[in-house]
Amino acid sequence: MADPHDDDTAYSARILPGETCFAAPASLSLLEAALLEGIRLPSSCRNGTCRACISKLHAGTVRYRIEWPGLSPDEKDDGFILPCVACPTSDVTFEPVGMP
Ligand code: FES
Questions:
Q1: Ligand 1: which of 32, 41, 49, 62 to mutate, judged by most atoms within 8 Å of the beta carbon?
Q2: Which of 3, 17, 52, 94 is most deeply buried (CB count within 10 A of its CB)?
Q3: 68 assigned to some structural domain
């Protein structure tokens, strides 16, 4: 199986509200890709534990770099993601919602 970190597929990401768009390579987290394009998103730990970056995924899919990102199963089912450790596996649309 291919190492997902070597995947250079480029997806596009859209941030709501405001429709900001940026290129989101599969090998980078959504937060890393946004920062590379000069887009600031809420963040702190950048390792999936503090939840400062929690966002609602409105469209698309992600995979996680870590086995247990700081989301409950219910939050995952409800479409919440942690962009600091979530890498896109398709074009995505998400909305930072702050710590619930
Ligand atoms: S920045 Fe801490 S969980 Fe994303």
A1: 49
A2: 94
A3: yes
Res. 1: pLDDT tops 60: no
Q: How many domains does the chain have?
A: 1
Give pLDDT, residue 100. 45
Q: Is residue 52 part of a domain?
A: yes
Q: Ligand 1 centre from 32 Cα, in Å?
A: 12
End-to-end CA distance of the chain: 37
Range of the domain at 39: 11-96
Helix and strand totals (H; E) in the chain: 2, 7
pLDDT in tens, 20-73: 999 999 999 999 999 999 999 999 999 999 999 999 999 999 999 888 888 999
